[in-house]
UniProtKB/TrEMBL annotation:
Annotated Pfam families: EAL (PF00563), GGDEF (PF00990), MASE3 (PF17159)
Record-annotated GGDEF domain positions: 314-446
Residue stretches spanning the membrane: 21-39, 59-81, 88-110, 122-141, 153-172, 184-204
SUPFAM superfamilies: EAL domain-like, Nucleotide cyclase
Source species, domain of life: Bacteria
Stored CDD domains: EAL, GGDEF
PANTHER family given in the database record: BIOFILM ARCHITECTURE MAINTENANCE PROTEIN MBAA, DIGUANYLATE CYCLASE DGCP
Record keywords, A-Z: Membrane, Transmembrane, Transmembrane helix
UniProt protein name: EAL domain-containing protein
Annotated EAL domain residues: 455-708
Keyword Thylakoid recorded: no
Length: 718
C-alpha cells in the first residue's frame, strides 16, 4: 500500500515574507501600545506647533511622492511597464493633493476662514481614497510593458485628476467641518477596506512565488492602513492621533518607493548580474558535464608556460583522451544516451585526478587531464596507463553496464611544444596515434606529425575519390559446404588511390565512419553490388545471394527501407537475392533495431549478423529479431584446430543456429582441416582464402559452375 500525497508541496517562508510579517507585528504593536497608554488622544499641540508638525510631515510625504514619480517615470524608460507608470502617476496626484491639504490648514495661504478645516480635510480624504482605490486597481490588472510615449497620457491624467479634486474642494459652497462629520466613519471604513483589498489582491496574485517587490508594497499598505486607522480614532487634524497618522503614512510611502526600486532597479540588476555570471561560467565551462572547457585550459596553459602560476618545477603534462567508437554509440543508442555516457566519463576522470590535476572537456568526446608538478618524465606515462585501467570497469547507465575504451595522447612541457598551439596540436596527434589500435596510450613523437597530415589529406580526398570513380568492389564467394557449390558472394569495397595505390579498408573505413562519409559510400556500394548481381543474372549465370554490409550509421537512417527499395527497383534485382549484413552493435538500441529489422524483412531481403560472437551476442535478441543467418567471426575459426575454446565456441554457435532455424557462415576459412571441422559441425556455408580471395567482377564470373577445389585457381585466372 502506498501513500499518495495530494496538493502542492509546502513552500518554505522566504526572507521577504518574514519582513512582511514583522512589519504587521511592528505596526500593530505600535498602535496597541499607544492606544494602551491612552494619553495621546487628549494631548493637543498648540496651533503653531501642530501646523509646523503637519507641514513637516506633509513635506516629507510630498518628497517621497516626488521620488516615486521620478523613479517610476524617468529611470530605465525602455523597460517601462504598466504598474510602474500607473503607480508613479497615482502618487504624483496623491502628493499634489497632500500638499494642497497642508496649504489649506489654518495659517496657510489656501486656508478659508469660512470653511475652516473642511477643505483641508476633504482634500485629505480625496487623497486617501484615490491612493487606496488606485493601488487596488493597479494591482488587480495584469502588468505589461508600455511604450515611453504613454507617459504623455499619464501626465494629462495627473493634471486632470489634481485639477478636478481642487475644483471640487475649493468650489464647494457652504462647506463646513460639521457637514463632513457624518461621512467620517464611512470614508474611513471605505479607505480601510480598499487598503485591505489591495493587500489581499497582491498576496493572492503572487501566492506561488511571493516576490520581494510585491511583498514590500504589502508592507506599505500595512503602514497606510495603520495611518488611516489612527486618524479615524483621532478628534482632529491637530491632535496627537492626526500627527501619528501622518507619521504612519511616511513609512507607507517609503515602502512603496522601495517596492518600485526593487521592481525597477534591484531585481533587473540582480537578473543582469546573474545572466552575466551565467554567461561568464558558460564561456569557461562545458554545459553538459560542468567541466572547464578548452578556453579555460588554454588560458591556464599560457599562464603556466609563462610561469605565472608558480606550479612547482614548471613541468606538466597533458593526457588527451578520446572515447573509442563514440560515434557508433551515438548512432546506435541516440544522442541523449551519448550525453549520459559523456557525463559518466567526466565523473570517472574527476575521480581519477585525485587533487593532482585538472580535467577539461575539449568538445565532442574528447577530454584532457592536466597533470601538475611531475616528479619525472615517466610519471605522465604511468598516469596514462592508470587512466586506461580506470576504464576497464564498465560504466553504469541506468540499470545496465557498458564497457568503454579510450585512447590517450600524452605530451609534456617542456619538450613536446614551445607554444600553446604546438602543445595542443601535438597532444591531438598523439591521441590519434593511439586510436590506430584503440584502448591504448601514445607518447608524442615528432614523426607522428607526418601520419597526422597524411590522415587529414586522406580525409579530404575521400569525397573526391567517390566522384572520380576511385572506389571499386571486389567479391568473395560464399560456398555451400554440403553441396560443394557457389551460393553467394560478399561485396567488399576497395580504394584504388591514383598515387598511393590500393588503400586497405582498415585505413579508410574508420575514417568514413568518423566523418559520416560512410553514408554516401555505403549507398554507392549497395547500388553497385545490386547492379552487378542483376547483370550476372541477365548474362545467364546462376542467381547468387549477394551480401552487402550495412554500417551502424546507415542502419540509423529512418528512410533506410525506402532507399533500399529504390535501389532494388532501379537495378532490377529481386529482394530475395540481397543479404544485408549488420553487426551486433545495432542490438544496443533493441526497440529501434527490432522495428527497423521488421521493416527490412518486409522488403523481402535476407538479414545476417556479421562477426557474431564479438559483440553483444544476446540469445534473447536472436529470438526477438528476424535474423536469417549468423556469420561466425574469423577470430574463432582461425584456431579451431588448435584451440579447444575456439572449437567449442564454433560448435556451440552452429548447434544453437540449427536449433533456431538459422543458417551459419564461417568466415576466414584458410585450409582443408578447417573445412573438415566445419562440415563435422554441420556448418552450412563458409568463405575465406581457401576458396578464393576477394576478386573483381571480371574474375568472379570464372567461379560460376566450379567445384570447391577449382575455385581458387579459377579466381586467380589459372
Amino acid at each position: 500500500m502506498s501513500l499518495i500525497r495530494t496538493g502542492e508541496p509546502e513552500r518554505p517562508i522566504n526572507r521577504a515574507e518574514v519582513k512582511t510579517i514583522g512589519t504587521v507585528a511592528v505596526a500593530g504593536a505600535t498602535f496597541v501600545v499607544l492606544g494602551w497608554l491612552g494619553g495621546h488622544k487628549s494631548l493637543r499641540l498648540s496651533e503653531h506647533a501642530g501646523l509646523v508638525a503637519h507641514l513637516s510631515l506633509e513635506s516629507a510625504a510630498f518628497g517621497l511622492c516626488l521620488a516615486l514619480l521620478v523613479l517610476g517615470w524617468m529611470v530605465f524608460v525602455p523597460t517601462l511597464c504598466r504598474h510602474r507608470l500607473s503607480t508613479a502617476a497615482l502618487f504624483a496626484c496623491v502628493g499634489i493633493l497632500d500638499l494642497m491639504h497642508a496649504f489649506s490648514l489654518p495659517g496657510m495661504p489656501l486656508y478659508d476662514e469660512a470653511a475652516g478645516e473642511a477643505r483641508s480635510l476633504l482634500l485629505q480624504w480625496i487623497s486617501q481614497g484615490l491612493g487606496a482605490a488606485g493601488l487596488l486597481l493597479i494591482m488587480s490588472v495584469p502588468n505589461r510593458s508600455v511604450k515611453p510615449g504613454a507617459r504623455r497620457y499619464a501626465g494629462v491624467a495627473i493634471a486632470a485628476v489634481a485639477a478636478g479634486a481642487a475644483a471640487f474642494a475649493f468650489g464647494a459652497e457652504g462647506l463646513k467641518p460639521q457637514s463632513l462629520e457624518p461621512y467620517r466613519a464611512v470614508q474611513s471604513a471605505v479607505v480601510l477596506l480598499l487598503y485591505a483589498a489591495a493587500a489581499a489582491t497582491i498576496l493572492y496574485r503572487n501566492r506561488k512565488e511571493r516576490p520581494q517587490a510585491m511583498l514590500t508594497i504589502v508592507q506599505a499598505l500595512v503602514w497606510l492602513f495603520a495611518a488611516k486607522l489612527e486618524q479615524s480614532l483621532g478628534t482632529g487634524l491637530s491632535d496627537t492621533g492626526g500627527l501619528l497618522a501622518e507619521a504612519y503614512k511616511l513609512p507607507g510611502y517609503y515602502f512603496l518607493l522601495k517596492g518600485i526600486y526593487f521592481v525597477l532597479i534591484e531585481e533587473p540588476y540582480k537578473r543582469q548580474k546573474k545572466a552575466e555570471s551565467r554567461i561568464r561560467y558558460m564561456a569557461y565551462h562545458d554545459e553538459l558535464t560542468g567541466l572547464p572547457n578548452r578556453r579555460l585550459l588554454s588560458e591556464k596553459l599560457v599562464a603556466m608556460m609563462r610561469g605565472g602560476e608558480g606550479e612547482g618545477n614548471g613541468r606538466f603534462a597533458l593526457l588527451w583522451l578520446d572515447v573509442d567508437r563514440f560515434k557508433t554509440i551515438n548512432d546506435s543508442m541516440g544522442h541523449s544516451f551519448g550525453d549520459r555516457v559523456l557525463v559518466e566519463v567526466a565523473r570517472r576522470l574527476q575521480d581519477f585526478r585525485s587533487g593532482r590535476g585538472d580535467v577539461f572537456r575539449m568538445g565532442g568526446d574528447e577530454f584532457t587531464v592536466l597533470l601538475h608538478e611531475l616528479a619525472d618524465e615517466s610519471e605522465a606515462e604511468r598516469r596514462a596507463q592508470q587512466l586506461l585501467e580506470r576504464f576497464e570497469a564498465p560504466i553504469r547507465i541506468g540499470s545496465s553496464l557498458y564497457h568503454l575504451t579510450v585512447s590517450i595522447g600524452v605530451v609534456q612541457y617542456p619538450g613536446d611544444g614551445e607554444t600553446l598551439e604546438q602543445l595542443l596540436q601535438n597532444a591531438d596527434t598523439a591521441m590519434y596515434g593511439a586510436k590506430e589500435v584503440r584502448n591504448s596510450w601514445r607518447k608524442y613523437a615528432p614523426d607522428m606529425n607526418g601520419k597526422a597530415k597524411e590522415r587529414l589529406q586522406l580525409e579530404n580526398e575521400l569525397r573526391l575519390a567517390l566522384e572520380a570513380g576511385q572506389f571499386k568492389l571486389e567479391y568473395q564467394p560464399l560456398v555451400d559446404l554440403e553441396l560443394g557449390e557457389l551460393v553467394g558472394a560478399e561485396a567488399l569495397v576497395r580504394w584504388n588511390h591514383p598515387e598511393r595505390g590500393l588503400i586497405p579498408p582498415s585505413e579508410f573505413i574508420p575514417l568514413c565512419e568518423e566523418t559520416g562519409f560512410i553514408l554516401p559510400l555505403g549507398e554507392w556500394v549497395l547500388r553497385t553490388a545490386c547492379r552487378q548481381a542483376a547483370e550476372w543474372q541477365a548474362e545467364g549465370h546462376r542467381p547468387l545471394v549477394l551480401s552487402v554490409n550495412l554500417s551502424i550509421r546507415q542502419f540509423r537512417q529512418h528512410d533506410l527501407c525506402e532507399r533500399i527499395r529504390d535501389v532494388l527497383a532501379e537495378t532490377g534485382l529481386a529482394p530475395r537475392w540481397l543479404d544485408l549484413e549488420i553487426t551486433e552493435s545495432i542490438m544496443a538500441d533493441a526497440d529501434y533495431a527490432a522495428d527497423m529489422l521488421e521493416r527490412l524483412k518486409g522488403l523481402g531481403v535476407h538479414i545476417s549478423i556479421d562477426d557474431f560472437g564479438t559483440g553483444y551476442s544476446s540469445l534473447h535478441y536472436l529470438k526477438r529479431f528476424p535474423i536469417d543467418k549468423l556469420k561466425i567471426d574469423r577470430s574463432f575459426v582461425s584456431d579451431v584446430l588448435h584451440d579447444r575454446n575456439d572449437a567449442a565456441i564454433v560448435s556451440g554457435i552452429s548447434a544453437m543456429a540449427r536449433n533456431l532455424n538459422l543458417a551459419v557462415t564461417a568466415e576466414g576459412v584458410e585450409n582443408e582441416g578447417q573445412v573438415a571441422f566445419l562440415r563435422e559441425q554441420r556448418c552450412k556455408q563458409a568463405q575465406g582464402y581457401y576458396f578464393s580471395r576477394p576478386v573483381g567482377p571480371e574474375r568472379f564470373v570464372h567461379l560460376f559452375g566450379k567445384e570447391l577445389s577449382e575455385m581458387s585457381a579459377a579466381a586467380s585466372g589459372g
